[in-house]
Structures are given as structure tokens and as C-alpha cells.
Amino acid sequence: MRIGVSQEQEELRTSVRRFLAGRAPLPRVRELMETGDGMDAKVWQQAGGQLGLQGIAISEEYGGAGFSFAEQAIVLEELGGALYGGPYLASAVLAATALLASPDDTPSREMRRAAARQDRLRSDGRGYRTGQNAERPRRRS
Question: pTM of the entire structure?
């Protein structure tokens, strides 16, 4: 059993930290704390589009990265360290985990793929939304 952080995990940490320093510096985060939802939707979309953070623990079969809770913990540490107010815990951790654990595979297959893409599913404090044009995932063998 390996205890510690791998080079790949350290690179993930560095990438997330650099991303947040550039797009969500502390003065900007403080401004956002005064708004209704406390987040910048553009930064949230970039976190998914550029780093793939929202799909980090979704399996590759559904378009995610296929990482583990260890990588999610690294992302959560960095988000917390930057005081980032996006819905990562609600959508990428809690909702994604629930979808992956769902015994009813039929509705959750599409939602797993959408969660990995984050362009069809999001949690913004007002619920979860799916797009009308969500792709149908391939059937598991």
C-alpha cells in the first residue's frame, strides 16, 4: 500500500492551485462573497472545461477522468485553500457519488456522462438540470 502523494497527484494539485490563483484570487473571492450565489459561473465552467474537475471521479466510460477520492480530496483542499465558492462538493462529489452508486442504472447513465461534462448537469443551489440534447451513453458490456 502506497502512502503519500504521487507525482500525478502533485501535478493535479499544482494545476488546480495555479488555475485558482489566476481566475479566483482572494480579492475576487471576497467580492463574490457579497453576491447572491457567491460564485463566478465563468470560472466554474472553465474549471470543468480546462481542468475537467467536475468529472474527475466519474469513470472514463462516461467521459470523466476515472480518478479516486484521493484526487477529489486534493481538489477539495485546493478549493478550500483558495476559499472558492463554487458548487464542487455538491455536484462533483456528492451528486456524482450518488449517481455512481445508484442501483437504477437506466436514468443515471445519462446523468453520469452529463456530470462528467458539466455542460448538461450542474448544481448551483437551485437543483440539478439536464439539457435536452444530452447524449445517450453506450450500453455497458
Answer: 0.74
If DSSP codes are grouped into helix, strand and coil, which group holds residue 27?
A: helix
Residue 22: pLDDT above 90? yes
**Please, are residues 32 and 44 in contact by the beta-carbon 8 Å criterion?**
no
What amino acid occupies position 9? Q
Q: How far apart are the first and last CA of the chain?
A: 31
Within a domain: residue 59? yes
Nearest 5 degrees, angle CA 73-CA 79-CA 81?
Answer: 100
Question: Residue 91 burial (CB < 10 Å; 0-12/13-18/19+)?
Answer: buried
Rounded to whole angstroms, what are the CA distances from 98 to 31, 109, 111, 112, 140? 32, 12, 11, 10, 19
Residue ranges making up the domain that contains 42: 7-117
